[in-house]
Specification:
With 294 residues, this protein is an all-alpha fold. It has twelve helices and two strands; from the N terminus they run H-E-E-H-H-H-H-H-H-H-H-H-H-H. A hairpin with a 7-residue loop joins strand 1 and strand 2. The longest helix has 36 residues, at 2-37.
């Protein structure tokens, strides 16, 4: 029997080997290489030069653009995460009920999630067009005279990217919330109804607390994904106007593949990793204060 188990183990490792080797080379190896690269000055053409912590020091002391793109990224996170969470919850509350065409509406709100971001951004680029876009046409018909220059005005460009991102991903949050709502025991609502609780009391005392694990998960994944925004800014505005929509990942792309500052780009990437790790750590640390499990 032991010989059979040993043979099965070897076969299992044989099947796992391609994935394991691929992970070591293309994931773990790439991560380690990028960390080492962050301490170098290298343009992929000349010999790498060790510069120690100079790349990191330059980021926070000499690079005003980095501080700007960090601010832009934080603004984007603050604009998208609450919107996705709140709107996702409201959509889930509406679509979890038995209403006419419920399946159609569920599919409709999830459809943007499966649309490629680049394709969606191309469509929204036309919608945001200041001269003949659908959005400004609608605002004009509603009586708005001072129409926004969505993609050309630094005050509105980030708002446009936030709108696109919320539209694109709110359906995913809604689906997660619907799954969480369906996991709440119906008997609790029946008991609350017998006790004379109002709909608001039922929502505040039962739905929200028991939905907190799902809410926590939705917030975490939205924070992580929002810090990594790139496609929307790349297609809609190219990081402009005047770096108004330049984000951390876009700045990494520019440094690495436009200006060939591979070491500097790697340093920015590790700073981004540290920010995401810290934000996630804080959320996990304080989840016990508001997340309740059955």
């Amino acid at each position: 029997m032991s010989g059979l188990k040993s043979k099965e183990t070897r076969i299992a490792w044989l099947f796992l080997a391609p994935s394991f080797v691929g992970f070591l080379v293309f994931v773990f190896g790439a991560v380690v290489f990028s960390l080492l690269l962050s301490f170098l000055d290298w343009d992929m053409l000349t010999t790498p030069k060790f510069v120690g912590l100079s790349n990191y020091i330059k980021l926070f002391t000499k690079d005003a653009t980095f501080l700007l793109v960090l601010k832009n990224t934080v603004v984007f996170v603050l604009g998208t995460v609450p919107s996705r969470v709140i709107m996702g919850l409201l959509l889930a509350l509406a679509l979890v009920k038995k209403i006419p065409l419920r399946s159609f509406f569920r599919a409709t709100i999830f459809f943007p999630v499966i649309v490629p971001t680049v394709a969606a951004a191309m469509v929204w680029r036309w919608i945001f067009n200041a001269d003949f876009g659908l959005l400004n046409d609608l605002l004009y018909r509603l009586g708005v005279s001072n129409l926004p220059q969505w993609l050309a005005d630094p005050k509105w460009a980030m708002v446009a990217i936030i709108i696109l991102s919320v539209w694109k991903d709110v359906g995913f949050s809604a689906v997660l919330f619907m799954a969480g709502l369906q996991g709440i025991p119906e008997v609790l609502y029946e008991a609350a109804k017998i006790d004379g609780a109002s709909q608001f009391q039922t929502f505040w005392k039962i739905t929200l607390p028991l939905l907190s694990p799902t809410t926590f998960f939705v917030i975490v994944i939205n924070v992580i994904s929002s810090f990594q925004v790139f496609d929307q800014a790349y297609v809609l505005t190219g990081g402009g106007p005047g770096n108004a929509t330049n984000t951390l990942v876009y700045y990494i792309y520019n440094n690495a593949f436009q200006w060939f500052k591979m070491g500097y780009a790697s340093a920015i990437a590790w700073v981004l990793f540290a920010i995401i790790f810290l934000a996630t750590f804080i959320q996990f640390k304080y989840q016990k204060r508001w997340v309740y499990y059955l």
